[in-house]
Amino acid sequence: MFFGLSADLSDALETDDVDLVDLHTVSPALAAAIFENGVLIVGTVEHATELRRQLTARESDQQSPRDRLDAALARIDDHLGDDGAGVPAAGDTKDDG
Where are the annotated segments for Disordered (predicted)? Predict the structure, then answer.
């Protein structure tokens, strides 16, 4: 489907300088570059602005895998610490055995 649509756009615009991208599959950095340098052909500026905000605001995608893991473990520790039950998800624990 993408190849056919890309070919149709090239024919309609009379240029082979067409890149067709599924924005929901790209990194936030690439999405930002596309919105900064690309040309809106179909749709409204308002929708494009909202889509840009959604696709470039993914903080977790800009963190390293280690930072994402550390943040997840901290959230688990916070959750377990709320009621005093359970064991920490990370860090030292006492071994009674």
Answer: 74-97
Q: What is the pLDDT of residues 8-39, one digit of tens each?
A: 988 998 988 888 888 888 888 899 999 999 98
Is there a contact between 78 and 44 (Cβ–Cβ < 8 Å)? no
Q: Residue 32 contacts by C-beta under 8 Å, 6 or more apart in sequence?
A: 52, 56
Does the CA dihedral 62-64-70-73 come out positive or negative?
Answer: positive
More confident residue, 82 or 33: 33
Phi, psi torsion values for 2, nearest 5 degrees: -60, -45
Residue whose C-alpha is closest to residue 24's, from 62, 59, 52: 52
The answer to whether the pTM exceeds 0.90 is no
Say how far apart CA 69 and CA 75 lie, in whole Å. Answer: 10
